[in-house]
Specification:
Layout lengths: L27 E3 L5 E3 H10 L16 E2 L2 H9 L1 E3 L10 E3 H10 L4 E3 L8 E3 L3 H7 L5 E2 L7 E2 L9 H86 L1
Antiparallel strand pairs: 1-2, 1-3, 4-5, 6-7, 8-9
């Protein structure tokens, strides 16, 4: 649906009216035949039809395009009254800025922010209403810290509330202790697994070093045997040389 034409100041060009709802275009789209529509209007129309409501030419959602720039500019320059005019707002501004104004308008009817309260109040009067709203929250005057949300809560039992609060704190403390305990156990278990893994790696390295030492000792013994054999051969050669 478009903007109610009665809200506008002065003449509104026919080309800026929606061809379906006949109000001033809101979030406009344009068909290839150049007829313009509010987005909500044309989408609703095309659910049951496949042609332009003006000239009956075939159209599809994929063929809809944004409004021409010059038409968009003309549309944005239109002046209109705030929708809260009936509540006393006298603001007149351009269509381009009307949404921003109405989001912040002091005459807008907004719901009370207190849970359970169904009152609709003007934005400018909200603070005054909240100060006296029967659903407003406030602390117990006896100092127990209980938050009073309604008239029935004023007769609450402070001792019972404090006991309840104490039980909640105790439960929360137990939960936190358990969480800390589980976290420490998890860390210790992780460190234990890491140490076992490290020990296994070190043990493998030691076994490898022992194996290398064994091979080196075997090589040394082989070299010493070869040296003795070589020395014997030299002695034998020296003896034969002397005999000759």
């Amino acid at each position: 649906m478009g903007y109610d034409i009665e809200r506008f100041v002065g003449y509104v060009n026919e080309g800026l009216l929606c061809s379906i709802c006949r109000d001033v275009l809101e979030d406009p789209l344009q068909a290839p035949c150049e007829h313009a529509f509010c987005t909500a209007c044309i989408h609703g129309w095309l659910v049951h039809h496949s042609n332009c409501p003006e000239d009956r030419q075939l159209i599809d959602v994929s063929l809809l395009r944004p409004l021409y720039r010059y038409m968009k500019n003309d549309l944005n320059r239109l002046q209109l009254h705030c929708r809260n005019r009936e509540y006393g707002c006298e603001m007149v501004c351009s269509l381009e800025s009307i949404d921003r104004h109405e989001r912040e308008c002091e005459y807008s009817q907004i719901p009370c922010s207190n849970a359970g309260c169904t009152v609709q109040i003007e934005r400018r009067n909200l603070d005054g209403h909240l100060a006296v709203c029967e659903y407003r929250s406030r602390e117990c005057p006896n100092g127990c810290g209980y938050t009073i949300l309604s008239a029935e809560d004023t007769q609450h039992n402070c001792v019972a509330e404090l006991r309840t609060e104490l039980e909640l704190l105790r439960s929360e403390m137990i939960c936190r202790v358990e969480e800390a305990k589980h976290e420490m156990e998890s860390r210790l278990d992780s460190q234990r697994r890491h140490m076992v893994q490290k020990e296994s790696i070190l043990q493998n390295e030691i076994e490898e070093l022992k194996s290398q030492m064994s091979r080196m000792m075997s090589d040394v013994r082989s070299l010493m045997a070869a040296e003795r054999q070589h020395r014997q051969e030299l002695e034998q050669a020296e003896l034969e040389k002397r005999e000759l």
